[in-house]
Fold each of these.
Amino acid sequence: MKIIVCVKQVPSRDAILRINETGNWIQDRDIAYDTNEPDAYAVEEALQIKEKLGGEVVICSLGPERVQMVIKEALAKGADRAIHICDPALDNLDALGQARAMAEVISKEGFDLVFTGLQSDDYGFAQTGVILGELLGVPSATIAMAVEADEASKTVRVKRELEAGWFQWYKLPMPASISIQSGLNQPRYATLKGIMNAKKKEIRKVTLADLSLNAELLSSKQRIEKVYFPVKSKKTEIIDGSAKEAAAKLVNKLKQMRAL
Amino acid sequence: MSGILVFAEQREGKLNRVTYEAVVAGQRLSASLSQPLSVVLLGSGVDAIAQELATKKADNVYLVDNEHLKNYTPDGFSLAMRQAIEQLQPSYVLLSHTYLVRDFAPKLATSMGKSLIADCVGYKLDGSKLTLVRQIFQGKINADVSVHDSAPVLISFQAGAFRGDDIEAGSASVKSLAVTLSADQIRLEPQELFREAKQSVDLTQSKIIVSVGRGIKSQENIAVVEKLATALEADIGASRPICDSGWLPMDRQIGSSGQTVAPKLYLAVGISGAIQHVVGMKNASTIVAINKDANAPIFDIADFGIVGDLFELVPAIVDEVEKAKAEG
């Protein structure tokens, strides 16, 4: 069983975001980064399948030098090796452009399953796994809450989350691309031994020169022109003061409104 | 190429009401751009839904009836939509960003060499130049996105981006649209829909809910908000990450994948207000948000907000509530 897990590095969820000078992205220096949350669940799911069925887990991550941090974390948890697609020309592409670069690498690598987290915290396209499926010519399923791979029949059963508490199982022939929902497992922590072992594991770097993507394929069809903090639609009364003062004011207001 | 084509979503023979939001977007864009509006419905034996859609203002409702579309699969829906688009040649295709659309629309777009502009919350029109508004960083920041794609442009809108109630009534003609699909093109085998074991906690009836999010940091700290819930005689709710981590049971989850609630008072403690949570609680009469990040989107929908450390604020509120109760 060979599983490729696509992992993205994103600003930490509690990072205080500021807008950059050109007004078209955040100030992305000097903020903390993390593994995109659903991607951490995707790594765990792949490791659990490997522990059951044997095989190999390969991490694939696209981004600047700093993404090595999330690659190493996945290797420390037990992934076997990694591919780092690193080229400034790819950093700000839309989901289709980035997926094209990843698909080329993944296609050469070969796989039984490709896992992605269902959505990234930064752009939030929620598309990469499905686009990869199409580009790789394999079936895809999204919002997976359970994955059961069967090597003998070359099929994988995926429990998909629908809306309002409904679920549905789908059976797909392998190879397949599956996007993983948060909460389907309990991601492990890296152990000290794992961290030591990870140092010996291969991280293969791929740049644009290694890919056969032409300029047309590398131009985003959707581009961010401007970013800004949303204008509030509701009038929010911000209560200030010390904790004690704010608490007293709030309780008073709620009493007046008969909300208490 | 001309015209706006709206994808109508049904599952198990029932129209997903969020479709009307996409139709509203379509009606407005159609009026502004002076282009015809069509709605396309995929399925098998869903004529009644097509008739229902035809009572709304649109030029045409296209019914794509095919046995391979009876049960939803991304393969079937993507192939059928592509054929519908090729026949109708619209300039824009609008969809609602539901779980079903997320499952097939990126595939559809990719198969046509296009980039789906997903999960938009609105649009701006300057003459005939369309700019889409998307949320990034989980709703903390908005982005204006320009389109550099040839027609048709594929756009999905977030639930709540438009109000379904704003839909204009009318009478559209229902036409059938044939597509060619074969069994071997459908690689996925869908099985029956089901729900997990019955939810034991019904938060839909709660008068007051104290809801806790990631800001609580650890399972041990849940006790902090439990004290507040006790003081307020409230029920405890949670955002998804809290239930994913097993800190509270799944039946406490509020949001798109959990319960939708509308209590008299909703206190969001350490919840940033990602859209997946907000859709489940925005109809509460009074919303109070406590968060250390002044830019957290939860403050956009709160009536009262306190920016600060919940570990100082929540115990202080408990004290004040107890005091108020003692005073009667």
Amino acid sequence: MIRRLFIANRGEIAFRVIRTARRLGMTSILGASEADLSSWPARDADEVVWVGPSPSPQSYLSVDAVIAAAKAARADAIHPGYGFLSENAAFARAAAAAGIIFVGPEVSSLEAMGDKLMARKVGIEAGLPVVPGGEAADKAQALVRANATGFPVLLKAVSGGGGKGMKRVDRVEDLEASIDMAMAEAQASFGDPRIYVERFIASGRHVEVQVLGDGETAIHLGTRDCSIQRRFQKLVEEAPAPLIPDDKRAAIETAAVNLTRHLNYRGAGTVEFLVDAETFDFFFLEMNARIQVEHPVTEEITGVDLVEQQLLIADGNRLTLTQDMVQADGHAIEVRINAESWADDFRPSPGTATHAAWPTGAGVRVDTHMPSGGVVPPFYDSLLGKLIVRGATREQAVARLTAALDVLNIEGISTTADLHRAIVRDPRFQAGGVDTRFFEGLTHG
Amino acid sequence: MSVELPLSPEDVNEIATILDGSSYDRLDIRTSRFRLRVERSGEGWSQEWSLDEGAEVAVAATVSVSTVAVVPEGLEGVAAPLPGTFYHAPQPGAPPFVAVGDVVGPDSVIGIIETMKLMNPVHAGCAGRVVDVCVDNATMVDSGAILMHIQPA
């Protein structure tokens, strides 16, 4: 039984994990960097351990530092959150070597899904359709592959993921230079210059399926639509994915479960698909072997605590949830409030949130670590908090979201609240079922 | 270092719902550890948390700063528009954007500041010649730190 849980993360997800750990009677130990020692999650955790200086490579991204801190804290288990080391096989191995449970999938799953090219291969093995394209071992092969696939193409980093390191190339004239840049960036960002090529599907929707597996059984908890993105970073997510015919939706969910079973996957994961907005043909993109930022929208419509499921599975339990027990009810939408200035091309805005009034009330959930007077350090990402609403219908959820955004008031730093107010006013958003071109068509209010 | 917050998010929602049915507009709870204000806001309700000031507050940016406080007379200083890590070149191994002696215009990119995982270009802000690069490559700087000196045209 996990009694002492080390949380190897920060910000809103650290707070989120602490909340469930507390409910389950576990002692929460937060591993905090220098900059986060007085953060709200640090004050809320039962214990706090210093994991290193503020810059991530010396703290949250340092396998040695985090494992040492967890050992010193006599932790039974480590929850890695999302980002940082959450999908790092070396980290999972180091935890196991230290006798600490890693709250996440087996190393074999991390390795299979972490290499996006291998994930494509595994997807094909599991019977999933994939986007036309493939491996590009060197520049010459990349050129051949891109020409065969047809333009526009998307260049993706094999060791990438989370929307990072992707380049769209529209014309063959730009291809060579783009390949050079993509490989250089992949090397710089992920330590691996390998890229692969995919056809760029213009009218596509990003639809993903939340899955749970215990190594033998796998179930799904429905779809999420994350098509509203800027530069492949999600801004708004909703559950279930709206306006998809039932039979197509069922096919996508089944494909996700098939992949999960094929991997003998243990833990919570998300299988991401690109769905053609006209035909609803779907293509496997990648699988994220961790809890995701947007997990709350699934929680709100199913009533399932995904972090609790992660902890139960990590502790060696079989899934007690069966597919029939998962009943989705209503609609939920999440918007990510980032410390960025929309007017200044999303320039990040670290500093102090002198005033932070978040909405509350019926159907409103706020996952944040930012109180009034809270500090946004310049070392990490810009996510301030997630505003999640649920309603009996999508219309009600959209109305609640509009009202909640009116209440939201953060001063002292720039935030993307205005961007989201523009999104909810957009008739395309109100109609639902938008594709990934949505953001380009958004008018700056 | 634990501050048990006895009110869960669900509790706060319930407070707002109860207040909504009443004639009250605000609930203000202050303990030695935190302050919570739940307040009517237009048609909805807001929650505002403040944590106790007594606990040690971390200095958010414990940065090693390389700043030149005074810009020599006759020169213009290019100031960092935000805090972060200042890089001279677009990526490791690439030639720097500018070198001493280069002529720049107001929109010339003279470097990048990486902060919160994003790369932010720094523009010269004036026309002239670069006479001094004040900050080493890959140095953390505060907002406002002087990065370069430019001799205006």
Amino acid sequence: MFKLNPKTDIDNESEYMIEVSNVSKRFKIPHEKRTTVYDNIIGKITGSSYSYEVFEALRDVSFKIKKGETFGIIGENGSGKSTLLKILAGVLVPDSGNVKVKGKVAPFLELGVGFQPELTAVENVYLYGAIMGMNRKEMDDNLDSIFKFAELERFRDAKLKNFSSGMYMRLAFATAISTDPDVLLIDEVLAVGDEAFQKKCHDKMDEYRQNGKTIVFVSHAAESVTKLCKMSILLHNGGIVSLGLTEKIIADYHYQMLEKGRDI
Amino acid sequence: MYLFEYSELIKNLVASDLKVKYQSSVLGFAWSMLNPLLMMLVLYAVFNNIFRFEQEHFALYLLIGIIAWRFLANGTMAAMSSIVGKPSLVTKIFIPREVLTFSMAMSAFISSILEFAVLIPLLLILGVSLSFTILLFPVIHILFFVMVYGLSLVLASLYVYYRDLNQIWDILLQVGFYLAPIIYPLSLVPEKYMFYYMLNPITRLMVMYRDILLYSTIPSALDFLIVVVCGLLFLIIGTMIFRKLSPGFAEEV
């Protein structure tokens, strides 16, 4: 595998919202997992050695994302896409390397984080809004537009446990997008819901892009990345294979998939 | 400080936890009050008729002890699951993880205040006159909270790695219940153990709650000293352990 200079054709004067330099992440996968005090005591007594596989999720990954850019992260399953996104979100801590993310970040790794089925829709909107970093006043102002966007005005005081999964997703999405972030981190959450909902999501993403928000989009679906992102990186086994304009990256991706198919 | 920065989120997490806790049953809050009341009645019946403890206002003495103990037991048990029990808040979004543990401890703190509030009319009905010493209640209860929160930080972070810790802690709580003067008078403790017995900060807290609510006396400076020192110690050790372990939480939850 060859490494690429993270420098792109972007001029260096512009402001970078995200800077990732030499990030590596390893996961230890134990052969026999010890998750209790009991396991640990028994392990000590029998003297069985504590062995594990090391899985390198990310190796020496570096790239920069400019303000207002939509940036795709492409790769097959297990290539490290989600790990990278989680590191950008601050959920995972890299073993080495540096990550700098500027501005207010809205991670869309999962929609409806923290939703409580026992509470009503309104209560959940307030809770989810607070989790996404909004204050009371912003929520008060946005409440009507959230329910309008989700098309759930009639169900404000219904308990969430009585919602269908479609209603649940609409409410979560409407709340999540009412935050006014500088950086959006999006996992393949948009691949849910019916076509009308998908369309709404894409329209919203376009709106964000036009408003100059920085978007990082992770997917293994080439089509949706092409639609949304100008620049992309292709990950394979935790390393960057190529970095550049999305069309070129997608071509590399397809070539890589073809190669893989030939091996089988 | 993260607690101020995230006060909005803490408010929401505490409020939703309380709502879920009290909404899920028809009687809601009444249940959480019935539990200590019924326990007090059973213990009172047993001890007053069989053992015949000589203790002034023994029923209220029991009830104060039980309610105070419930804060420690329920608070640490709930806060212990604050990380493991909410995986999506740990792995799908970044929130300082202490906020989650703090919110659960705070929710138990508010529940405990409500339980103490119900105690006040009972004091009056059973002929105890309240005095100005009750003004010390917030101070003592906040000191207790610091201790519970410190313990919760230790438990919540270790629970991520040792999933049988809830069983172990449950047993330790049962032992602790008998190591403090909750259901028996302090005078029952043998003289030779008294020194060690009084080092237990929970013992001190039990004495203090009864001093201000039942006997209209101001707790001794030594009581305050031991509780403050232990509370700060738990808080510092808890924060250190939690900060050390929390970067790995998302991988283990």
Amino acid sequence: MELETLKSEIEAAIPDCRLEIVPNPAPSAQHSLRVPPEHGLEVAFFLRDSCQFDFCTNVTGVDWPAKELTEKIKVKQLVDGVEKEVDQVRKTTVPGSLEAVYHLYSIERRLGPLPLRMRTADRESGVHLPSLTSVWRSAEFQEREIYDLYGIVFDGHPDLRRILMWDGFEDHPMRRDYVEPDDYEYEPTAHDEVLARAKEHAAKANPV
Amino acid sequence: MSAAWAPITEPSAAEVPSLGRPAPRPAMPVPPDADLAEQYLEISMGPQHPSTHGVFRMNVVLDGERVIQLKPVFGYLHRNHEKIAETESYLGNMPYTDRLDYICSITNNWAYALAVEKLGGIEVPERAEYIRVITGELTRLQNHACLLGFLLQDMGASGTPLMYAFREREKVLDLFESLTGARMMCNYLRFGGCRVDLPAGWLDRAKAFLAEFPRFLDEFERLLVDNEILMERTQNVGVLSRELAVSSAISGPMARASGLNYDIRKADAYSIYSRFSFRVPLGHHGDVYDRYMIRFLEMRESVKILEQAMRDIPSGPIQNPAVKARLFRPKPGEAYGRIESPKGELGFYLISDGSGIPYRYRVRPPSLINLTVLEDLCLGRNVADVIAILGSVDIVMGEVDR
């Protein structure tokens, strides 16, 4: 089935839902569908019930930190009264976000994989996405894992707790900017070297 | 007449020598207004428990002997495999995949190689595909044999079945050792082929093993298949419905025991599986007994595949010469590749940003996802059934925790 057909089918069934096809240039050509989070549940139910995508095998997170793009552009400027083309460097910042990817298959129709993507607003406070556990039960542990390792909060998840790290752990280790502790069992000693290392680490982990 | 015998009298309680045993405690007085139905017992099974197949813990709430809640606790073997992989080159990750499901390392290599091949559009030579099928199916034989041994051991059939299974597994591991140099951590497959060709005489030894194997299967199956205790403990225990299996993305023998006709070797025929004639065994009840039996049937089908593959294997190159494994830099993009590993659907999801290190590397672990329904299977059963149900799921903690 063509992804364009599927996209227009979904958009016809769910009013004011705009989907985006994310092309995949790799030879695998597994193009994916980006869903706005506010329509995530509706799209998921539609895919399961009307398109028979009943088998949601893989659920995972991806971290996209903010990155700065530099590009050279030519700008026309008046230099000494004469119009000239001058090179200028323009910097644009792409805001960071966290992404959840669901790989769907259809057992009845032997289709797949259809990667479904949802992006959070940012990486700090707007990390909420709707949980699709009520649609596909297989997302239960995998969404917990994403919550644990990436820090995406899945609204409506029945039991959102850490799954691999321990409950007292605070950070999200799979994020790209995660700084791991020097020593998990760190105890202060009188050794200057160790203290200096700890100080350096504290400055890195909690920049003022 | 000599002196009369002294009359035998019962010794008084005070005269009995104490054996150091405390006197039995009087029963706890039950308060007259106590509601006995509310008295639940919460126990922690594991992490150091022989039947949990590694360090796995279940927080179980019991009402008498019945399970009314079961929460699995993971993470004791967590080493953030995915994070490590995102700092290593594509080739450098291959040996790490061995450590996921350490019973079947070659199928882990295969799933990873398949995902990278999809990402880079790599062709695999004919002979290498046959070698992959042969080693992969041998892996399935030894995994299923092991699992059946473990399951029976957990249920109290102490020793004999496990030793029978391990005797066969040793033979497979010997074959792997002579082929790859390692018994368990094989690190054998590469993108676009295999690391080394089959050594001289290897195929004959493998054929000799395969000729004997059905005899072991018959013997092993006959050992306990109509045993009354086994039937009592496994039939109608831990029933998984087809609907729940689909919704929870249960894969592998566990899904097929519930009647779900979904074998990736058939449904999404990767490699050269479309060339072989084999059947997909299906269960009807989805209970522990079906999951036990389906492994026997799958081994018989694997034997068929192996016979065909060993008969048809061509000569030729084993590695695609166009692949520069050490300098492998795929173009930006992503790929999800999956195979039917002995445990179920093992998938790798890779995102490349054009560098030599994967931007995102994700393992879809069948062991973890098959545990999603563990609580559903155990609710209302006895504690002893939890052990049998967990054993029939077939997990390896190296893969669950990653």
